[in-house]
Design brief:
The complex is a heterodimer of chains A (455) and B (313). Chain A has 455 residues and is of the alpha+beta class. Chain A folds into three domains: 3-138, RNA polymerase II/Efflux pump adaptor protein, barrel-sandwich hybrid domain (OB fold (Dihydrolipoamide Acetyltransferase, E2P)); 150-192, Irregular (Dihydrolipoamide Transferase); 230-453, 2-Layer Sandwich (Chloramphenicol Acetyltransferase). Chain A contains eleven helices and 19 strands. Chain B has two domains: 2-163, Rossmann fold; 183-309, Rossmann fold (3-Layer(aba) Sandwich). Chain B has twelve helices and twelve strands. Chain B has helices at residues 2-7, 31-35, 47-59, 78-84, 88-91, 121-124, 138-150, 199-212, 230-240, 255-266, 289-295, 299-309; strands at 11-15, 40-42, 63-70, 101-105, 131-133, 155-159, 183-186, 191-195, 217-221, 224-226, 243-250, 276-280. The termini of chain B are far apart. The chains are: A alpha+beta (455), B alpha/beta (313). The interface between A and B is small, with 11 and 8 residues.
């Protein structure tokens, strides 16, 4: 019975994968456990193992071509079968949208119904329940189930290592002791590269050797292959910016009271709990203000669903976190769940944890998914004003500038005060201009009356 | 045996060729001269008969040592040694014990063919009421034999023809080795290899080779199969997080399988890989020398198993 290898689902968000490289060619003998291909997913490049012994009868997908999860990508002739006669499934090229293609050429040994050996007219109507062993061939790589050796699981618990951020090096991606030891070493070294996405981002640039270029031929000229993360950023943001009717609304906030309150609270924390390591940032106040303002403005905390709007019950605030250049750069969004129900201090600790983890060992899928609203803050770089691209499926994102000490008018008098600008980008399918302005007004009253953020 | 027989007049030796011929393998050399024909007794080729007779004498207060020229021949005495000796204390409600030692060569002796190459531990370790000792070296052979003779229950003492010729330090003075106390033959950090009897030597050879490749093995010599020293085995697996069991019997329902099951049960959270077993292949022992070597749990198979459980394959 020929064995069909299909594109495995290597992460829970993976819909399609690209064979970067075949490590085997047609006619090669393979054994269970052999790495047959390198597959690039939306997040990383991973090795694909085969789980059967046999001979590669046919490679169905060329390197570089992206196909949907479940699409047959190769056929293995089992022992005793003639690879030449096994071949491809009835001449059908792997249709990206197709479910596992019918195996007309395969002897339907599993079927008790005699099958008339006629070439099917339409491949879409298979005459026998085919796809002989397809589920088995990738069952191990399929689905979100994580394989972890018992001792690795125990060690990870002890060390506080998130298993979903560890890549297993054992058979079928099993996470084993040495993976945890490596993750632990990396964690403590806090300098080495950790997660797969980051590693990939460090891929060697391809140097253009002497090729004449429109842009000249400076010695730094080079072509850098897109990492999985950069591909994801490229895809998602083009999708967002081209499919969502964006518009922006900016407001200016008087920050004097907030700056004073922040200083006062940080002094109090330093006096009461000097070892807690808590220092509230301006951003923590903004997160809190944005989150609790949702109660009055539920549509800011919503997703567009084609023929409906999904107004979310939980307020999960995403925070854009830039990754350091030496780790390959890029950015991720860490998510603080139920931010409207958390105190300033909790928000501060959680966002600090997410940022540090993102920059050292990488965030888990859990920590990156489920946001209902996103904040991007470039204030710490001195930026006063910018606009951000909506992070789907959110309907709004707040771009925060720096709080700047500057001449202001207060009570009809020129004075020196702290001001900050923030710009909302919104999805007009969900939120109209007045609704956005109303939300900013609530935000302004909260920020300018910071005591309201501490209760 | 002689030391014990000098100490206790109830002890006697019987079996085929043990007296006048000084033992088929010369194990009882000089014993007839020292103890005389009443205590070192030649038997006809009738294992069932003399094993049964010895069991009767043990029930009545003597302490016999029964030599089977090969444990393969004990199969014809299965009823007395399995159905009578180990159950006597239980079935008589404590009225009769059975302080007896059965001993002989066990396992492949080297081109003896299928019927003479039995590893009876696979069969006999299944039976409650008996004890099984299986020394891997001369020092243990003496210490375990003394414990076996002094034990009030039936002891199956499994020697190896292949090990009769090995040399090792054996003190003249009195010592015993308790049952159920394993020896750590080699300390290591990456993988525990549990074995007993002759395969301990295969395990040591494998560990030596693996050490050169940077894999540090801890080799445990169980010394007795019943009782098994679980404490030492579990402690080692908790340290190394990997375990390979090397057992010369066939894998199905063997003591090796029992170790694998117990380790999986008690050290589940300590394992980085399922326990692997290295056994003799599941075929009758071949006569051809190359095939016999291939069938045994040889170092090559052990090395492959250790690499697999340590993910170095």
């Amino acid at each position: 019975m020929p064995i069909s290898l299909t594109m495995p689902r290597l992460s829970d968000t993976m819909e399609a994968g690209t064979v970067i490289k075949w490590n085997v060619k047609e006619g090669d003998k393979v054994r269970s456990g052999d790495i047959v291909a390198d597959i690039e997913t939306d997040k990383a490049t991973m090795e694909m193992q085969c789980f059967d012994d046999g001979t590669i009868a046919k490679l169905l997908v060329e390197p570089g071509k992206q196909v949907k999860v479940g699409t047959p990508i190769a056929v293995i002739a089992a022992k005793g079968e003639d690879p030449a006669s096994v071949g491809a499934p009835s001449g059908s090229a792997p249709a990206p949208a197709a479910a596992p293609a019918p195996k007309a050429a395969a002897p339907a040994a599993t079927s008790s119904v005699p099958v008339t050996p006629v070439t099917p007219i339409a491949p879409a109507t298979p005459s026998a329940p085919a796809t002989p062993r397809a589920p088995e061939s990738n069952a191990d790589a399929d689905g979100p189930r994580m394989r972890v050796s018992p001792v690795a699981r125990r060690m990870a618990e002890g060390e506080g290592i998130d298993l979903s951020s560890v890549r297993g090096s054992g058979p079928n991606g099993r996470i084993i002791k040495r993976d945890i030891l490596a993750a632990s070493a990396n964690k403590s070294a806090a300098g080495a590269s950790i997660d797969t996405g980051t590693k990939l981002a460090l891929r060697q640039p391809t140097v253009v050797a002497g090729a004449p270029s429109l842009f000249g031929n400076g010695p730094g000229e080079r072509i850098v292959a897109l990492s999985g993360m950069r591909q994801t950023i490229a895809r998602r943001l083009v999708e967002s910016k081209t499919s969502i009717p964006h518009y922006q609304v900016t407001m200016r906030f008087a920050m004097d009271a907030l700056m004073a309150k922040r200083a006062e609270m940080n002094d109090a924390i330093a006096a009461l709990a000097p070892d807690a390591g808590v220092k509230l940032s301006v951003n923590d106040f903004i997160v809190r203000a944005c989150a609790i303002a949702m109660a009055k403005h539920p549509y800011i905390n919503a997703s567009f669903g084609g023929d409906h709007i999904n107004v979310h019950g939980d307020v999960n605030v995403g925070i854009a976190i830039s990754l350091p250049e030496e780790r390959g750069g890029g950015l991720v969004v860490g998510v603080i769940r139920n931010a409207d129900r958390k105190s300033l201090r909790q928000l501060s600790q959680e966002s600090k944890f997410l940022a540090e983890k993102a920059r050292t060992k990488g965030l888990s899928m859990d920590e990156m998914s489920g946001s209902t609203f996103t904040i991007s803050n470039l204030g710490m770089f001195g930026v006063e004003h910018f606009t951000a691209i909506i992070n789907p499926p959110n309907s709004a994102i707040l771009a925060c500038g720096a709080a700047v000490e500057q001449p202001v008018v207060r009570n009809h008098q020129l004075a020196v005060g702290w001001e900050m600008q923030a710009t909302l980008s919104l999805d007009h399918r969900v939120i109209d201009g007045a609704m956005a302005a109303d939300y900013l007004k609530t935000l302004k009253s909260l920020i300018e009356t910071p005591a309201s953020l501490t209760v | 045996m002689s030391e014990e027989m000098r100490r206790d007049a109830r002890i006697y030796l019987l079996g085929e060729e043990v007296a006048q011929y000084n033992g088929a393998y010369k194990v009882s050399r000089g014993m007839l001269d020292e103890f005389g024909p009443r205590r070192v007794i030649d038997m006809p080729i009738s294992e069932s008969g003399f094993a049964g007779m010895a069991i009767g004498s043990a029930m009545m207060g003597l302490r016999p040592i029964v030599e089977f020229m090969s444990w393969s021949f004990s199969l014809v005495a299965a009823d007395p040694i399995l159905n009578n000796a180990p159950k006597m204390l239980y079935m008589s409600g404590g009225q009769f014990g059975c302080p007896i030692v059965f001993r002989g060569n066990d396992g492949a002796g080297g081109q003896l063919g299928s019927t003479h190459s039995w590893c009876v531990e696979g069969l006999y370790s299944n039976v409650p009421g008996l004890k099984i000792a299986i020394p891997s070296n001369p020092y243990d052979a003496k210490g375990l034999m003394k414990t076996a003779i002094r034990d009030d229950d039936p002891v199956f003492f499994l020697e190896s023809e292949r090990l009769l010729s090995i040399k090792g330090e054996v003190p003249e003075e009195e010592y015993t080795i308790p049952f159920g106390k394993a020896a750590i033959r080699r300390e290591g950090t990456d993988c525990t290899i549990v074995s007993w009897g002759r395969p301990v030597h295969f395990a040591m050879e494998a560990a030596e080779t693996l050490a050169k490749e940077g894999i540090s093995c801890e080799v445990i010599d169980g010394r007795t199969i019943r009782p098994m020293d679980w404490t030492t085995i579990f402690a080692s697996v908790r340290k190394t997080n990997a375990c390979v069991v090397v057992d010369q019997s066939w894998s199905f329902a063997s003591p090796g399988s029992e170790v694998a099951a117990q380790v999986s049960e008690h050290c589940f959270d300590d394992l980085d890989h399922p326990v692997l077993r290295v056994h003799s292949d599941d075929v009758p022992a071949p006569y051809a020398q190359n095939l016999e070597q291939e069938m045994l749990p040889n170092p090559r198979k052990i090395i492959a198993a250790v690499k697999k459980v340590t993910y170095r394959a």
